[in-house]
Every structure is written in C-alpha cells, then in structure tokens.
Amino acid sequence: MKFAITSKGNPASNALTQKVRTYLQDFEMIYDESNPDIVISIGGDGTLLYAFHRYSSRLDKTAFVGVHTGHLGFYADWVPSEIEKLVIAIAKTPYQVVEYPLLEVVIRYRNGGKEMRYLALNESTVKGLVGTLVMDVEIRGDHFERFRGDGLCVSTPSGSTAYNKALGGAIIHPSLPSIQLAEMASINNRVFRTVGSPLILPEHHTLVLKPVNSFDFHVTLDHLTVMHRDVKSIQFKVAKEKVRFARFRPFPFWKRVHDSFISDGR
Ligand code: NAP
Ligand code: MN
C-alpha cells in the first residue's frame, strides 16, 4: 500500500511526519506523494483542507486521516501519543472508510469564458471586491431573494462547524448529504429584505447566485481565495464526489462537537 504525509510545516508536525514515515516504511508500505492510497495529515484541520485540495483529483482512490499537533480538530482527531497504534492500524489493512459529502461550485462567465468547477470540503464564500455584495439568489431555478450584505457562505455538513457556525448556521451531521446557505450581515429594512435564517438544501437542489450590478467577486474554497471577474452566475450543489476518511476507532461526530466546543474533559 502507498502512503503520503502532509505536514503543517511547524517543527512538531515535521518531527512527527519523519517518525510516521519511518514506521510505515518499516511495515513495507511505500511512500508515494503522487498516487497515495492513504494520506496522513499532520497538523490541524487547515492541514487536512490543504491535503484534500492537493489530492482532490483522486478522491475515489484516496483515504484521509488527520493527526493534530495542536488542539483537537474536526478532521484531525488523532493525538501524537496514539501514533504507534495508528501506524499499526494503517499497516494492517483493510480499514473501514467513512464518506462525507462535498460541495460543488460551478462559476460561469459573461464573456463566454470556459466555466470552472471546484470542490470544497468546508465551504465556499462569495464577497464583493468593494462595498456591499448584491446577488439574486435562486433555488431550483426560482428567484428566492435579492441579497445585499457582506457576503454569502455555502457549507458542507462537515464544514458546518467552521465559518458557517460563526455566522449562526446550524451544525449538520455529515450523514446528511446537504448544503447550507448562511448570510453575512444582510441589510434588512423596509426596502431590502432577505430571509435572515440559514437555509439547508438537500441533494440535487441547486442554489444559484446571479450578480445584479457588479460582476467581480472574491470566491473562497476552504482556505483558498480567488478573484473572479465578469461572473454570470455561481452555482452550488451537493457534489457527486465524496471525501473518504480512514476510520480506525469510533469517534462520533457529536462527541467531536462536544469535545471541541463544550469541554474536552470527557
Ligand atoms: P484558519 O484561520 O487557521 O482557520 C480558522 C479555524 O477554523 C482554525 O481554528 C481551524 O482549525 C478551524 N477549522 C477548519 N475547519 C474546521 C471545521 N470543519 N470545523 C471546525 N473548525 C474548523 O485557516 P485554515 O486552517 O486554513 O482553515 C480555513 C477555514 O477557516 C475555512 O474553511 C473557514 O471555515 C474557516 N474560517 C472561519 C472564519 C470564522 O470563523 N469567522 C473566518 C474565515 C475562515 P485548525 O486550527 O486546526 O486549522
Ligand atoms: Mn489553521
């Protein structure tokens, strides 16, 4: 079996990376950065987001596992002291795999430029370059509202505990294939009106944002931000692809939520 390791790059993560690499090679596993069967992310949730995007073209052939060298994470839920146990579990395949839903983002351009398709593990956000973002929001082809405000955030269930949570969105269990739209500071008065609540859309429902009077935007995909000019529409839905996590012990999602946000006293 082939493996790769993505490190956060700080000394603690780099030291652990060396250790895991040596251990796994002792078990006759092959280090292969291009075509790994399993990717071990060592650092934090941000490190796993980076690893996800690096290997997003071969999600069906790759399983991810996250080790945290800082605080407990949602994707990085193994501690360095468990590393020997983890290495043995990885080496004696087959292991269980759990799949989480992803967000598909398709950006189309007014100038006839080629449409772009992206995947996000946490979320995609849209903000204007200057001033208020103004977007018509369509759900399944029907006009829903005209949004004016700081921006919009569309998240996955596993990303619902990240930016989405800070925006007052709900935490969604990753067994529900869905996407969530959350507002960033919408303008609401007698003239301008948005629904105000986060919306949760099921599989196959498309959400489309259409510019009204300004066509350039900052679009984020997890930790990445890209400026898009001359945008005609931005479409979101649950992706057909899924992310696969190697599962070696039970660590229920609600327990991760508890341990991250309430207390890790157990
Ligand atoms: P970062 O600024 O280090 O990330 C912000 C925090 O979000 C970090 O503590 C990170 O954990 C944590 N995080 C990432 N994914 C999470 C998840 N699924 N559930 C709960 N917490 C999560 O930047 P980054 O590490 O590159 O992460 C990018 C993410 O930051 C974006 O996808 C977005 O969700 C989040 N973000 C949040 C806000 C906000 O809450 N206001 C604003 C912008 C971006 P680690 O420290 O373990 O990496
Ligand atoms: Mn981070």
Notes on the protein architecture:
The mean pLDDT is 97. The strands form two sheets. Strands 6, 7, 8, 9, 10, 11, 12, 13, 14, 15 and 16 form an eleven-stranded antiparallel sheet that branches. This protein has 266 residues and is an alpha+beta fold. Helix 2 (45-54) links the parallel strand 3 (38-43) and strand 4. The chain has helices spanning 11-26, 45-54, 83-91, 163-166, 253-261; strands at residues 2-7, 30-31, 38-43, 63-68, 76-78, 96-109, 116-120, 123-128, 133-139, 142-155, 178-186, 199-202, 207-211, 217-221, 224-228, 231-247. The protein has two domains: 2-95 and 248-261, Probable inorganic polyphosphate/atp-NAD kinase, domain 1 (Rossmann fold), CATH 3.40.50.10330; 102-240, Tumour Suppressor Smad4, CATH 2.60.200. The protein is elongated. The protein is 18% helix and 43% strand. The two termini are 35 Å apart. The protein contains five helices and 16 strands. NADP nicotinamide-adenine-dinucleotide phosphate binds at residues 44-46, 49, 73-74, 122-123, 158-159, 161-163, 166, 222-223.
